[in-house]
Design a protein that fits this description.
This protein is an alpha/beta fold. It folds into two domains: about 1-150, SPOUT methyltransferase, trefoil knot domain (Alpha/beta knot, 3-Layer(aba) Sandwich); about 165-220, Orthogonal Bundle (Trp Operon Repressor, Chain A), CATH 1.10.1270. It has eight helices and nine strands. A five-stranded parallel sheet has the order 2-1-6-5-7, with helices on both faces. A two-stranded antiparallel sheet has the order 3-4. Strand 5, helix 4 (about 95-100) and strand 6 (about 105-110) form a beta-alpha-beta unit. Helix 1 runs parallel beside helix 6 (about 140-150), helix 3 (about 65-80) packs parallel to helix 5 and helix 4 crosses helix 6. Bound molecules: adenine.
């Protein structure tokens, strides 16, 4: 899996993804992550890449041309990939979308900043827009890292135990059942007896019931047949 990030703040991407599981997967060659500085593609000495919106309004917008030049550089160097703009106007990101993007092999994530991006860049260059939720961040960098993390952990070899992601929340369409580790008794709370029984069929049944109960209590919208 290859992921290119176009950003005004490459340090944010490198800080978030340069540690832990994703960093180790990159070291082992399972994934390739590259953060590119959009400002390097400005056409003026001041390296300005933003300007005021036509029609007025608060703040400034990212200009289309530096973004487009940065994208051309990336595709010339590393090949074409699915081009995704992170913005609150996009379709909301889901586990299913993470799986589709993992199958793409190469994605290019454009991190908007300021009040957004000139619409003509989006029309001309982006394949789609993705939002990570119905709230507004200061920029697309954290959102791009969320997408990259969710995609990369689906790539074979990235997680130590690949059964991990078959078992968990959302892969089954349900929330995950409760889990416990040592000690057996903590602050007067004990681990449910069934988990200590050694009866694997009973444990499986209990987990399925718990997953269903949690989902109906917390996220009934995820249950089959519910309207979304
Ligand atoms: N940029 C600002 N807010 C965002 C969001 N919710 N999702 C993706 N990109 C964003």
């Amino acid at each position: 899996m290859e992921i290119d990030f176009l950003t005004l703040f490459p340090g944010m991407i490198n800080a978030l993804l340069g540690e832990s599981i994703i960093a180790r997967a990159a070291e082992r060659g399972h994934i390739k992550l590259r953060a590119h500085q959009i400002r390097d593609f400005a056409d003026n000495a001041r390296k300005q890449v933003d300007d005021y919106p036509y029609g007025g309004g608060a703040g400034v917008l990212m200009q289309a041309e530096p973004l487009c030049r940065c994208l051309t550089h990336v595709t010339a160097a590393h090949g074409n990939g699915r081009v995704i703009l992170l913005s609150p106007q996009g379709a909301v990101f889901t586990q299913g979308k993470a799986a589709l993007l993992a199958a793409e092999g190469h994605i290019i994530l454009i991190c908007g900043h300021y009040e957004g991006v000139d619409e003509r860049f989006t029309e001309e260059c982006a394949d789609e827009e993705i939002s990570i939720g119905d709230y507004v961040l200061t920029g697309g960098e954290i959102a791009a890292c969320v997408v990259a993390d969710a995609v990369c952990r689906l790539i074979p070899g990235v997680l130590a135990d690949e059964s991990g992601f078959q078992d968990e929340s959302f892969a089954s369409g349900l929330l995950e059942y409760p889990q416990y580790t040592r000690p057996r008794l903590w602050r007067g709370r004990s681990v449910p007896d069934v988990l200590l029984s050694g009866d694997h069929a009973a444990i499986l049944r209990w987990r399925e019931e718990q997953a269903l109960r949690r989902t109906s209590q917390r996220r009934p919208d995820l249950l089959p047949g519910s309207e979304r």
